[in-house]
Amino acid sequence: MARFPLRQAKVLELAEALIAGLTDNPAVYPAPPISTADLQAVLTACREAFDEVVAARAAFEMALTAKNEVLAGLVEKMKKDLRYAENTVDFDDDKLKLLGWSGKRAARYLTTPGQVRSLEAVEQGEDRLLVRWKAPVAGGSVAAYKIQRRPKDAGQWSDIATALKTEAELTGQPRHTDLEYRVIAVNRAGESLPSNTIAVVL
Predict the structure, then answer these.
(1) Is the pTM of this model over 0.70?
(2) Distance of alpha carbon 77 from alpha carbon 66, whole angstroms
(3) Residue partners of 189: CB distance under 8 A and separation at least 6
(4) Rounded (5°) CA angle 43-47-51
(5) How does pLDDT run across 111-149, given as a tens digit for each residue?
(6) Element (H, E) at 78
(7) Residue 88 and which of 22, 73, 78, 192 are 20 to 30 A apart at CA?
(8) Treating both helix axes as pointing N-terminal to C-terminal, what angle do 8-24 and 36-88 enclose, rounded to 10 degrees?
(9) What is the pLDDT of residues 77-108, one digit of tens each?
(10) How far is CA 173 from the centre of its chain?
């Protein structure tokens, strides 16, 4: 069974076919509830309404373009006056506030990330380990996470992987060895305090 079309163009196309079919086959369809004349009148009104919408859209686009051009001109002229004002009063904040403006903002310096939280071993296999942690709640934004490992309670920590998300799958890990893992958040300003340490034997 055919489905009634949803797209406007297809509705109009079906209306034309319906009118033509009823008009050409009065013996087959002698008394349709809506006459072909009424259908044609509504179809014509529908086409006119669609044309009005198209014209209105075109007018709106033209008005929007004109508005954007005027606004861009206003912004350009305002910026010239504001630059003049900044230079005239040497970025004095109190004097620039007279114009609804302000002086230079204080420089914001990047700080080191806060401490990584809740490191845990989620899955482990023969020589693989999936670890997951929570991002710091304080400090500067995190650029990456550094995963470190060492023999349990001994030796120096070694960098073994870097992650951009708050989890990492570590493969090729030593087996039958007591190991410790921790995670450090890093950015251009430096490194965070290490996360909690987890002990794992694969």
Answers:
(1) no
(2) 17
(3) 109, 110, 111, 112, 140
(4) 170
(5) 999 999 999 999 988 889 999 999 999 999 999 999 999
(6) helix 36-88
(7) 73
(8) 160
(9) 999 999 999 999 999 989 999 999 987 766 67
(10) 37
